[in-house]
Amino acid sequence: MLKHEHNDDFLLQQKKVLGDLEIVETKLKNKVCDELLKVCWCTLWNVTDETESNCIRLMNQQGMYLILDCFNGFSDKGELLRNMMDLMANIAEVQKLWQNLMNEEYVTVFTIFLESKKDGIEVRYNAAGVLSHLLSDGEEAWRVESPNRDEVIWRIVQAIQRWPLESQRNINYRSFGPILNLVRCFRSHASQYWAVWALCNLTKVYPDKYIKLLKEEGGLEILRKVMRDPRPITAIQELAKQVIDRVQMPVEASEEIND
């Protein structure tokens, strides 16, 4: 559910976004990657979380160009990349911005990041998430010739197969809405695979928080529908079954496993 902003909040948010982007632009001109730059991207990540207006505002202020410049200029800075990819994950949840992201340069960067070794799996996970949202728009909406849609799908699947399900996460979901939308996406098995893997990982590593959230948002029935449908690939079916079994497991058995 996206947040609504009052007029005063709107103006404050606008000033904050513009102010942080100006700082980022100055840091890039001076080729300086310091704590302030990391804080700016972290702040932009926070103000765009489930806030469509700020995501649009950032895109309208040429924020993507600054993101790409930071990716290219400071590609060895793991924490910085993570903050920016967390921000990109927020932007990619806004459907009306998908065509803005359907750009060869952007898609190429996200595809390259599927192989990133920086900061655990977070950069890879978010890169796959951004691409999964774009792929979910359907074959007719894919406008990038290279990498083409089939290649991106293949590379996402290959990447996910290498991720340990026990991976610890530096992430905090308040809603599974965007992920559950991808669980229902049968026209891109890579998108569906990413979403079901995310639910399996989060309910396995952080069961106390995310099993409850999944139940509250109707995720169990959505996963059951995936299990009953013949279209998903075997890996998706297996992950969905793991989540369903975990959610239905008696509390006592769950506690024994976690011990």
> What is the β-strand count?
0
What low-confidence regions span 5 or more consecutive residues with pLDDT below 50?
Answer: 1-7, 252-259
Mean pLDDT across all residues, rounded?
Answer: 90
Biggest β-sheet, characterized? none
Q: Quote the distance from N terminus to C terminus.
A: 35 Å
Q: Give the assembly state of these chains.
A: single chain
Radius of gyration: 19 Å
Tell me, briefly, the overall form: globular
Q: Briefly note the structural class of the backbone.
A: mainly alpha
Strand content: under 5%
Helical content (DSSP H or I, runs of 4+): 55-70%
SSE string, helix = H, strand = E?
Answer: HHHHHHHHHHHHHHH
Count of DSSP helices? 15
Secondary-structure topology with pairs:
Blueprint lengths: L6 H23 L5 H14 L3 H9 L2 H11 L4 H15 L5 H4 L2 H10 L8 H14 L13 H12 L16 H7 L5 H17 L1 H10 L2 H10 L5 H15 L2 H8 L1
How would you characterize the overall build of this protein?
The chain is built from 15 helices and no strands. The protein is mostly helical and 259 residues long. Helix 11 runs parallel beside helix 14 and helix 13 crosses helix 14. The longest helix is centred in the first third of the chain and has 23 residues. The chain is globular and about 55 Å long. The chain has a domain of 96 residues. One of its GO terms (cellular component) is Cul2-RING ubiquitin ligase complex.
